[in-house]
């Protein structure tokens, strides 16, 4: 068995088996999702993180490109109890180190106790505990990645023609492909814009909706997208998913903070405060909105810890979600979010979550 080592903040080093060689580091986080590894591993929100799967067997239904959310793997390394050959080969081709045959239950327990932590990984024929520790010592904190948007965004506008629906300007801070697909499915035309697009370029486009995507890292490091929201709020309907919700909140006078270990999985319960309906949601975030600010109402909360899951303003035409209504992976219970976003165009806005 080719060796691998995972060095953790605090000094411990865990021995593992190499499934894809290399040296890497990142913020060690875990997802409890038991399916959807193809989607999670290609989700740009995991940029600069090392993803641990708490579910013990990853890869048992192969690797299919049609499930990918982007054209490359985003976590800097992958940790699981057991990775199949299919996934090991894929990650080897992608140059993303992967390790298995370690006690992921213990690792997840440590992250829950100590919070998301930095780690260093050394895997392959030349692997050593020292190399893993050196990689850990070089690991920046998540908030130190001050221009992380540049690593995941399109560099110029890409337009996807839809039907007769509205024109959506999607600010790509690391967008999952399923967000564009969900809008196209509803007849919208989607203009995918760089994360640092100027207000002038958006004004020239004259979209019907400004939509801020999900993405990696600290929302405080997306100043350009925040300025866009400040510029266009009240002029154009605004939507946001995950990082997008955090950026919109910050732009409208709210605050964000880092969570201990975040929410990552496909069964996070969310209560809509107006209908009292609870839906299961897909989540992947380590920051959260602490204060929504004076202009936004918290309309949905996480049942487990009461954090803000939905923010809205009827007056300003703003709807955002902290979770991932586009699913992929996970439940489809919240796909109607996209109907609600498009319904802000014109006068026919519906109640965001219908009571049963
Ligand atoms: N999925 C996302 O958009 C993640 C948002 C942000 N990077 C966080 O960790 O909170």
UniProtKB/TrEMBL annotation:
<keyword id="KW-0436">Ligase</keyword>
<comment type="pathway">
    <text>Amino-acid biosynthesis; L-arginine biosynthesis; carbamoyl phosphate from bicarbonate: step 1/1.</text>
</comment>
<comment type="similarity">
    <text>Belongs to the CarA family.</text>
</comment>
<feature type="region of interest" description="CPSase">
    <location>
        <begin position="1"/>
        <end position="166"/>
    </location>
</feature>
<keyword id="KW-0055">Arginine biosynthesis</keyword>
<dbReference type="InterPro" id="IPR006274">
    <property type="entry name" value="CarbamoylP_synth_ssu"/>
</dbReference>
<dbReference type="InterPro" id="IPR035686">
    <property type="entry name" value="CPSase_GATase1"/>
</dbReference>
<dbReference type="Pfam" id="PF00117">
    <property type="entry name" value="GATase"/>
</dbReference>
<feature type="active site">
    <location>
        <position position="324"/>
    </location>
</feature>
<feature type="active site">
    <location>
        <position position="326"/>
    </location>
</feature>
<feature type="binding site">
    <location>
        <position position="286"/>
    </location>
    <ligand>
        <name>L-glutamine</name>
    </ligand>
</feature>
<dbReference type="InterPro" id="IPR050472">
    <property type="entry name" value="Anth_synth/Amidotransfase"/>
</dbReference>
<feature type="binding site">
    <location>
        <position position="284"/>
    </location>
    <ligand>
        <name>L-glutamine</name>
    </ligand>
</feature>
<dbReference type="InterPro" id="IPR036480">
    <property type="entry name" value="CarbP_synth_ssu_N_sf"/>
</dbReference>
<dbReference type="Pfam" id="PF00988">
    <property type="entry name" value="CPSase_sm_chain"/>
</dbReference>
<keyword id="KW-0665">Pyrimidine biosynthesis</keyword>
<dbReference type="InterPro" id="IPR002474">
    <property type="entry name" value="CarbamoylP_synth_ssu_N"/>
</dbReference>
<dbReference type="GO" id="GO:0005524">
    <property type="term" value="F:ATP binding"/>
</dbReference>
<feature type="binding site">
    <location>
        <position position="217"/>
    </location>
    <ligand>
        <name>L-glutamine</name>
    </ligand>
</feature>
<feature type="binding site">
    <location>
        <position position="215"/>
    </location>
    <ligand>
        <name>L-glutamine</name>
    </ligand>
</feature>
<keyword id="KW-0547">Nucleotide-binding</keyword>
<dbReference type="GO" id="GO:0044205">
    <property type="term" value="P:'de novo' UMP biosynthetic process"/>
</dbReference>
<comment type="pathway">
    <text>Pyrimidine metabolism; UMP biosynthesis via de novo pathway; (S)-dihydroorotate from bicarbonate: step 1/3.</text>
</comment>
<dbReference type="InterPro" id="IPR017926">
    <property type="entry name" value="GATASE"/>
</dbReference>
<feature type="binding site">
    <location>
        <position position="45"/>
    </location>
    <ligand>
        <name>L-glutamine</name>
    </ligand>
</feature>
<dbReference type="GO" id="GO:0004088">
    <property type="term" value="F:carbamoyl-phosphate synthase (glutamine-hydrolyzing) activity"/>
</dbReference>
<feature type="active site" description="Nucleophile">
    <location>
        <position position="242"/>
    </location>
</feature>
<protein>
    <recommendedName>
        <fullName>Carbamoyl phosphate synthase small chain</fullName>
        <ecNumber>6.3.5.5</ecNumber>
    </recommendedName>
</protein>
<keyword id="KW-0315">Glutamine amidotransferase</keyword>
<feature type="binding site">
    <location>
        <position position="287"/>
    </location>
    <ligand>
        <name>L-glutamine</name>
    </ligand>
</feature>
<feature type="binding site">
    <location>
        <position position="246"/>
    </location>
    <ligand>
        <name>L-glutamine</name>
    </ligand>
</feature>
<feature type="binding site">
    <location>
        <position position="243"/>
    </location>
    <ligand>
        <name>L-glutamine</name>
    </ligand>
</feature>
<keyword id="KW-0067">ATP-binding</keyword>
<comment type="function">
    <text>Small subunit of the glutamine-dependent carbamoyl phosphate synthetase (CPSase). CPSase catalyzes the formation of carbamoyl phosphate from the ammonia moiety of glutamine, carbonate, and phosphate donated by ATP, constituting the first step of 2 biosynthetic pathways, one leading to arginine and/or urea and the other to pyrimidine nucleotides. The small subunit (glutamine amidotransferase) binds and cleaves glutamine to supply the large subunit with the substrate ammonia.</text>
</comment>
<dbReference type="GO" id="GO:0006526">
    <property type="term" value="P:L-arginine biosynthetic process"/>
</dbReference>
<dbReference type="InterPro" id="IPR029062">
    <property type="entry name" value="Class_I_gatase-like"/>
</dbReference>
<comment type="subunit">
    <text>Composed of two chains; the small (or glutamine) chain promotes the hydrolysis of glutamine to ammonia, which is used by the large (or ammonia) chain to synthesize carbamoyl phosphate. Tetramer of heterodimers (alpha,beta)4.</text>
</comment>
<feature type="domain" description="Carbamoyl-phosphate synthase small subunit N-terminal">
    <location>
        <begin position="2"/>
        <end position="122"/>
    </location>
</feature>
<keyword id="KW-0028">Amino-acid biosynthesis</keyword>
